[in-house]
Amino acid sequence: MADGACTSRHPALREIRERTYKPVDAWWTVLLVDPLASRLVRLVAPYRWLTPNVLTLIATVIGAGAMAGFARGDQRGLIVGAVLFHLSFVVDCMDGKIARLNGTGTVFGQWLDFVLDRVRVFFCALTLFGGQYARHHDVAYLWLMSVAIFLDLIRYLNGGQVDKVRRGMAEELDALGFPVESGDEPRSLTGRAGACLRRNRIRTHLFSGIEYEMFVYIIGPLTGLIFEVTIFSGAALLLFEFVLIIRLHQATKAFPARLAAARASVSPADSEPVPVAAPASR
């Protein structure tokens, strides 16, 4: 079959869910994105020219439309911007699903997706808050823009470092034959409530970067409460990130003892000695 041809096969929704859904995901994605994205994936999956990279570029173009709406600053522009921002996010989620479904993902595609996501959100911040400043001549919107961009940056930096530390600890235990649960799901809620959320694929870290962006760039513009929603979202993001930091601190404190116990249970004949390396602290 020639490149770019249509396979004429539309996969079943059940197959899409089984092969492309993450085991756990943000509640906004599970409830408000996946039901639409899965059906759109079913429509476009046979068209191999619609690669993940093409979908990433389409999401960016739709995001540019959101920027134009935000820049207008009036009620109609804000509503259009919010709707297009959500649609851009839906298409952005489709690229990963298509990559998993058709096996067309690439390392470069992962880089492109990450970079264009950051570019889209950054310029949406500039146009949303800049548009409000141009309309109301209130410098507070410029300060709010700075805070929104800063929090989004901090969230990405902190999330990356938390994952890096957890992966490092998991790899050391795994090398001794003691596999641990994946650190891909940040947990902020435990007990019965947490178990119920996880059964429904909703991660217990209820206000992650996804919810933060959706509240700032969708809920705020739709309600007209840009200032109030952005402040609430920033506070909620910091609260849940602080919970992650506390749990990471607890895990790193317990890790040397866990690693020592794992080493003690492995006989010298079974494995080579593995040096104990406690996580670096500052």
By CATH, the superfamily comes out as CDP-alcohol phosphotransferase transmembrane (TM) domain
Q: Examine the coordinates and then state which fold CATH places here, giving the name of the CATH topology.
A: Four Helix Bundle (Hemerythrin (Met), subunit A)
Q: Report the strand count.
A: 0
Shape summary: globular
Helix content: over 70%
Distance between the termini: 57 Å
The assigned structural class equals mainly alpha
Proportion in β-strands: under 5%
Give the class-level CATH name.
Answer: Mainly Alpha
Radius of gyration equals 22 Å
Main sheet properties: none
Domain tally: 1
Q: What is the string of helix and strand elements?
A: HHHHHHHHH
CATH architecture name: Up-down Bundle
Taking pLDDT < 50 over at least 5 consecutive residues as the criterion, the unreliable ranges are none
Count of helical stretches: 9
Provide an overview of this structure.
By secondary structure, this protein is an all-alpha fold. It has a single domain (13-264), classed as Up-down Bundle (Four Helix Bundle (Hemerythrin (Met), subunit A)). It has helices at 13-20, 27-44, 52-72, 75-102, 107-136, 140-175, 191-199, 209-223, 226-264.
